Automatic annotation (TrEMBL), chain B:
Main localization category: membrane
Protein name, entry field: NADH-quinone oxidoreductase subunit L
Gene3D superfamilies: 1.20.5.2700
Family membership noted in the UniProt record: Belongs to the CPA3 antiporters (TC 2.A.63) subunit A family.
Transmembrane segments: 6-23, 30-50, 83-102, 114-133, 139-158, 170-191, 211-229, 250-271, 277-298, 305-330, 336-357, 378-397, 409-429, 450-471, 498-519, 602-624
Organism per entry: Ammoniphilus resinae
Pfam families per the UniProt record, alphabetical: Proton_antipo_M, Proton_antipo_N
Membrane topology: Multi-pass membrane protein
Domain NADH-Ubiquinone oxidoreductase (complex I) chain 5 N-terminal stretches: 66-116
Positions of the NADH:quinone oxidoreductase/Mrp antiporter transmembrane domain: 132-424
UniProt keywords, alphabetically: Membrane, Transmembrane, Transmembrane helix
Localization: Cell membrane; Membrane
Top-level taxon: Bacteria
Keyword Nucleotidyltransferase: no
């Protein structure tokens, strides 16, 4: 209870921010160093927390609770608390965020070419926001941290992005702003019915007849209709974030026009917030509704998978292939959630972490190639394995991980999510497995057209990966392999928590 | 020895890791690491086999907890039983010889260490598959085997054909893999476990409905169809010829394609429990046997003929396993073993030929026997063995298959097997006569025998291709008894009538004779049969246009559909959004100021959101409180 570990972890990037403010713009080396270091501290702390995490315990750990301020409401002062904590669901995502944060910070030193001071300032805010999203334990804090990821990202895209960056940034802000507006309304509505902001208390109030929040002796009375309404509204908000087709178009632009570190953060962590919200709020607060609408989620998941695959199949730019690939992989998370059983949820969380690592790695590799060739068009590239054997090898390995090759995290995630759904809806799951084939098709097409084949004269003298590029790639690949070979590192903290989330239908 | 069987796959894995780390420095001495590791694995495998083979030996099982799903524990581990003890020896032996042979064959290739690292990984994956005690672990290694074969087929990555072939191998087999994936998933929920022992116990206890058994049986077989190149997923195997020839030997004999047959053999109790599923196996196998043989009749590329012969022989194995009888089980696994020896031999010998003449077209060769006596002799042995001539290894196993089919009363399938045997004998000797006898097509070429490092592995395989059959003769079926000693109904296995043996031998001799007339003595012109039926010849030569069919019916429509969806995505979905958010443009102007870094403005926007939340809370409280 007295632990302030999570506060330290969440706000540790801001230490870097303070230092950055005092470093002159011209000292680019120092700016980059501090930028990277400000991501190392949370990385270390994240592993400290992970190491101290009690695997047996289902509830929240490292809980911190402070009265922050209060709002006057008629006669009473309603307190707004500062509440942090992690459980098995958020723990893996905190570690993921820290890893991707480090990855993106290094990417910043390589791929950002101007105004490092502002860049890293925005970066540290974003990192704190992302960590906070997963550690916060009430709606108010969650929303603030959520916004802390949104606004800096808008600037990073708009300032450091590629040619069409402003349009992309605006689109990003519009969609995500709309999403957070909807989320805000839902949060307010939830608060108005249970008079608390705390996740656990809301969950208890909504689902447990004996809860102290209920005076009537039954779960807080919100009508069937309102529950459905809130569920759908939240689903839309998180569907934008994940994204779920047809709300995905902001992401396509964002991935093609954003600077590399922003894409790593987006594909690695930000879109996972949508999936996290889906599990934490939609399933956590409205288990009956989730159970009722599981079929809808499964169908949306299959549509996402197949739609993403089919589009990825014909794109002529690597970044577009990866963007649609992300949509497809988000569909697998939906399938896991739709299963509404422990196996499925476990698969969904596995897939969040796994896709975060793999997608970030893939985008990083494409950026490394782009940096040297100034193109990501498939018909321009080809045969670069000759001049860049290391990068090409990693690219193929990452693609295999993404296509679900055993021994790497993609397989066990995909397999577990599907396995969960096969228990409940075998037909829909079987249709979804078409995606497994199509994923291999589009990934091999993209990777082989880039690396295999005859080497054009333009690409015979490309430099292979530099040490600074090798380090993060190997590190992330190491995590991908670790999870693939020994998935218990991920599943053990999850187990106890997931048992709590699985809807107890009929009880 | 059995308790240390887990080391068998780990040795090649260690070699792989070493080669990845130090391959660049080691250059061609990489070969020694690979050879040593596989040699050690082979010795261990042999020890394991002998220990299991000894009278009174029991199976060995070890597993540890790998992952949990709620209250369900998923294990990883290893198992030694009769079938996989035999497989371990076959795989390590063939792999060892391929490792040795490649030292000569790949000499001078600039990616020599990479090649050896792939070989080691391939061997590791296949051995891991073989010792798996549960279906999930099988699936894991199954996929790794697929990736390794992809890597090796695409080894000459700069060649567009190799790129296309590698991609095809991966994707076509993956279609099958998805069948297996679904089958395993469903089985897990029906039985509650991936472990073979649990699955077989559940089958015995009647825990599964019969439709479930059939469904799972067929789904798992789909996986085997992909891996073992059975119709209709056979198309990748002939194209996989783009890889270096030693790889073909490995893929066709001991690793990749053997995995499918092995899987069906491992799941044999499942097929015994479902008549429908086993009939599907039998008919697909039988059809593939004759279908692929009929394509082999007309191909001109030496490796392609061998590839179709593999497809056809694998069909035989499936046909035998599909009988769901003990005799069928023995015949199928026995043929898997003899085939491993003679097919590895044939490919290595073909590689030796290609190495010498630098062409793969059999009608550009000719007269090679004089110049390459060792290669020619071992190739002839391979041909006699695959054609099923007494007393070569192929004779014994093919007899067993035909006998098992006949005893089950499937006369149609029996006839198919006999006709396919005729085709096999014909096209194999067509290959032999065209390549090794007659006059050289191009006398200017200097052709000489391959070095010892290549011929010695071939000679070893040739010896086995002669004698391996004697381990399971009708009079003394040592292997069969041992393989099935724990199986129910083993004693019922009775042998087929003697006349089958006579008929099959005559048919094969007839095929050889016809080939000799056309390509050896040349008293019958090559076109004598093809010319009256040009369409039939074309059908066979163009492989029944299956590739074209898939291309036009699946690949292209899929691409067109993808293009169509892209249009929908860009113009309709995104267009609608733009329409709805008509003010995007207006805001776009405001967005231009982003460049000026007016952070305050946007901080304000964020702050406004938070204020809104606070107001909402207050309002809510006041309103309802």
């Amino acid at each position: 209870m007295d632990s302030i570990l999570l506060t330290l972890l969440t706000f540790s990037p801001l230490l870097g921010l303070i230092l950055l403010i005092f470093i002159p713009r011209t000292q680019t080396g120092a700016l980059k160093l501090i930028g990277v270091l400000s991501s190392v501290l949370p990385l270390i702390l994240a592993f400290v927390v992970y190491g101290a995490f009690d695997l047996k315990q289902a509830g929240l750990q490292f809980v911190e609770k402070l009265e922050w301020f209060s709002i006057p409401a008629e006669q009473v002062q309603f307190p707004i608390n500062y509440e942090l904590g992690v459980d098995g669901l958020s723990m893996p995502l905190v570690v993921l965020t820290a890893i991707i944060g480090f990855f993106a910070a290094i990417a910043g030193t390589i791929f950002v070419d101007k105004r490092w001071k502002e860049f890293y300032i925005l970066f540290t805010i974003m990192l704190t926001g992302m960590l906070g999203v997963f550690t916060s334990q009430n709606l108010f804090l969650f929303f603030i941290f959520f916004e802390m990821t949104l606004i800096p990202m808008f600037f990073v895209m708009g300032i450091w992005g590629f040619k069409d960056r402003e349009k992309a940034a605006m689109k990003f802000l519009l969609y995500n702003g709309l999403g957070s507006a909807i989320m805000l309304i839902v949060f307010v509505a939830i608060f108005m019915s249970v008079w608390t902001l705390n996740f656990t208390e809301i969950k208890t109030a909504f689902t447990d007849p004996g809860s102290p929040f209920n005076t009537q002796g039954s779960p807080v009375f919100i009508g069937e209709g309102l529950r459905y309404g809130l569920f759908i509204a939240l689903l839309v908000a998180f569907a934008i974030k994940m994204p779920i087709a047809p709300l995905h178009t902001w992401m396509i632009k964002a991935y093609t026009e954003s600077p590399t570190p922003a894409v790593l953060i987006s594909s690695g962590v930000l879109i996972k917030i949508g999936a996290y919200g889906l599990l934490r709020f939609n399933v956590g607060f409205f288990p009956e509704v989730a159970h009722q609408l599981a079929g809808l989620l499964a169908v949306l998941g299959v549509i996402n998978i197949i739609y993403g695959c089919l589009l990825a199949l014909v794109q002529n730019r690597l970044k577009l292939v990866l963007a649609y690939s992300s949509i497809s992989h988000m569909g697998i998370i939906l399938l896991g959630v739709a299963a509404m059983n422990e196996v499925g949820f476990q698969g969904a969380v596995f897939q969040m972490v796994s896709h975060g690592l793999i997608a970030a790695l893939m985008f990083f590799i494409v950026s490394v190639i782009f940096e040297r060739t100034s193109t990501d068009r498939l018909d321009d590239l080809g045969g670069i394995a000759k001049s860049m054997p290391f990068v090409s090898g990693i690219f193929l390995t990452a693609a295999m991980a993404s296509a679900g090759l055993p021994g790497m995290s993609g397989f066990i995630s995909e397999f577990t999510a599907f396995l969960g759904l096969f228990k409940e809806m075998p037909i829909i799951a079987a249709i979804g497995t078409l995606g497994i084939i199509l994923t291999a098709v589009y990934l091999l097409r993209a990777v082989l057209n880039t690396t295999f084949g005859p080497t054009s004269d333009r690409w015979t003298v490309l430099a292979d990966a530099q040490p600074l590029e090798v380090l993060p790639m190997v590190l992330v690949l190491g995590f991908i392999v670790l999870i693939g070979v020994y998935p218990s590192v991920l599943s053990e903290p999850l187990q106890a928590t997931l048992q709590n989330i699985v809807p107890r239908i009929g009880g | 020895m059995m308790s240390s069987a887990w080391l068998i796959p780990l040795l090649p894995l260690a070699a792989f890791l070493l080669l990845v780390a130090f391959g660049r420095q080691l250059k061609e001495s990489s070969a020694y690491i690979g050879i040593l590791a596989t040699l050690a694995a082979f010795v261990l495998a042999l020890g394991t086999f002998l220990e299991r083979f000894a009278a009174g030996a029991e199976n060995y099982y070890f597993a540890f907890q790998w992952l949990t799903f709620g209250n369900k524990v998923i294990d990883m581990g290893f198992e030694v039983n009769q079938l996989n003890a035999m497989m371990l020896v076959i795989v390590t032996f063939v792999s060892l010889l391929v490792h040795i042979y490649s030292k000569g064959y790949m000499h001078g290739d600039e990616r020599f260490p990479v090649f050896y690292s792939y070989l080691a990984l391939f061997t590791f994956s296949m051995l891991g598959l073989v010792i798996s005690p549960n279906l999930l672990q099988v699936y894991i290694f199954w996929e790794l085997v697929g990736v390794c074969s992809f890597l090796l087929v695409g080894f000459y990555f700069y060649k567009p054909e190799a790129r296309a072939a590698a991609k095809k191998a991966f994707i076509v087999t993956r279609i099958g893999d998805v069948g297996l994936f679904i089958g395993i998933s469903l089985l897990f929920w029906y039985v509650g476990s991936f472990n073979f022992s649990d699955i077989f116990t559940a089958l015995q206890n009647g825990a599964m409905e019969s439709w479930q058994i059939t469904l799972v049986g067929i789904l798992i077989f789909i996986g085997a169809v992909g891996k073992s190149g059975q119709f209709p997923l056979h198309t990748w195997l002939p194209d996989a010829m783009e890889g270096p020839t030693p790889v073909s030997a490995l893929i066709h004999a001991a690793t990749m394609v053997a995995a499918g047959v092995y899987l069906v053999a491992v799941m044999f109790p499942l097929y015994q429990a479902s008549v429908d599923a086993s009939l599907v196996v039998a008919y697909i196998g039988g059809f593939t046997a004759i279908f692929a043989a009929s394509i082999g009749l007309t191909q001109r590329d030496i490796k392609r003929v061998l590839a179709y012969s593999t497809v056809s022989q694998l069909g035989y194995m499936m046909l035998a396993l599909g009988m769901a009888s003990v005799a069928g089980y023995v015949a199928g696994t026995f043929h898997l073993m003899t085939h491993a020896f003679f097919k590895a031999l044939l490919f290595l010998a073909a590689g030796s030929v290609i190495h010498a003449v630098h062409t793969q077209d059999i009608f550009e060769m000719g007269g090679l026997f004089k110049k390459m006596r060792v290669t020619g002799t071992v190739f002839l042995i391979g041909c006699l063995s695959i054609a099923g001539i007494f007393p070569f290894a192929g004779y014994w196993s093919k007899e067993e298959i035909l006998g098992a089919v006949y005893n089950k009363g499937h006369l149609g399938l029996f006839a198919v097997g006999v006709i396919a045997a005729f085709f096999t004998a014909f096209y194999m000797f067509r290959l032999f006569f065209a390549t090794f006898t007659g006059e050289a097509a191009d006398d200017t070429k200097k052709v000489h025998e391959s070095p010892l490092v290549m011929t010695v592995p071939m000679i070893l395989l040739a010896i086995l291709a002669v004698v391996a059959g004697f381990i399971n003769t009708p009079g003394n079926p040592v292997l069969g008894h041992w393989l099935t000693e724990t199986m129910a109904g083993a004693e019922e296995a009775h042998h087929a009538p003697f006349w089958i043996s006579v008929v099959a031998t005559l048919v094969s001799l007839l095929g050889i004779f016809l080939a000799w007339l056309m390509y050896g003595k040349k008293s019958v012109s090559r076109g004598a049969i093809a010319e009256p039926f040009p369409w039939l010849y074309q059908l066979s030569y163009r492989k029944y246009y299956i590739d074209e069919l898939y291309n036009n019916v699946i690949v292209r429509p899929l691409r067109v559909f993808g293009e169509f969806l892209t249009m929908v995505d860009v113009y309709i979905i995104d267009g609608l959004v733009k329409l709805v958010a008509g003010f995007t443009k207006e805001l776009g102007h405001a967005g231009a100021r982003v460049q000026n870094g007016q952070i305050q403005t946007y901080g304000l926007i964020a702050f406004l959101g938070i204020v809104l939340l606070v107001i909402g809370l207050t309002f809510g409280r006041g309103y309802l409180g």
